Amino acid sequence: MKKDIILYINDLEEKMVAAANPENAAPMQQYMRNQFPFLGIKTPERRDLVREFVRTNGLPDVDNLEKCVDMLWKMPAREFQYVAIELLGKQAKKLPEEAIVWLERWVTSRSWWDSVDVLVGVIGIYFEKYPHQIAAINERWITSGNIWLQRCTLIFQLRYKQKTNQDLLFENIRKLASSKEFFIQKAIGWSLRQYARVAPVAVQTFVDTHTLAPLSRREALKHL
């Protein structure tokens, strides 16, 4: 990226505001339970806009990535966070080890499932690159009391398939199984359902031998 990061973000903001569609904004905001205001840019149009913007302006340098995402994260309209995660995802394999601090900050700021469940994909890539970080970060997050960090401990392995650390997954579920939080119960079921694609017997046995919330159990066994 040749452009100064502030000019880069200002240019991106200008293009997004120009693409706003007030007719779409209200239903999009309602779908997210009025957690955030929206510009009304639907996903296909937003991705096209970002693709064209990156083609013209390039991606932020890794050295500027934290500042870039921070600036977008502070903007009120929700689409700016979506774009931030999209730019972050394009650089996910290049993140430095200290980026886990940034990722934790974004998970716990302006938090809702729509941002956390995409950020966790970047977190999964990060842990593949820095596996020695998993134990300490997992322990900190699962004991944090923050439901979004806890949700991340349950679902960061979703795309790992056969490389899933079964012991870690099952232990995290045991620790959170009594949670009354919808987003934790749902994540438990989601993680088990996904892991059942490669280890159906292990998942069935786990569900049969542990007390899970009805939602978690139902989701876990959906394809078994």
Automatic annotation (TrEMBL):
Lineage: Bacteria, Pseudomonadati, Bacteroidota, Cytophagia, Cytophagales
InterPro entries: ARM-type_fold, DNA_alkylation
Domain of life: Bacteria
Organism: Flexibacter flexilis DSM 6793
CDD domains per the UniProt record, alphabetical: AlkD_like_1 (cd07064)
Official protein name in the record: 3-methyladenine DNA glycosylase AlkD
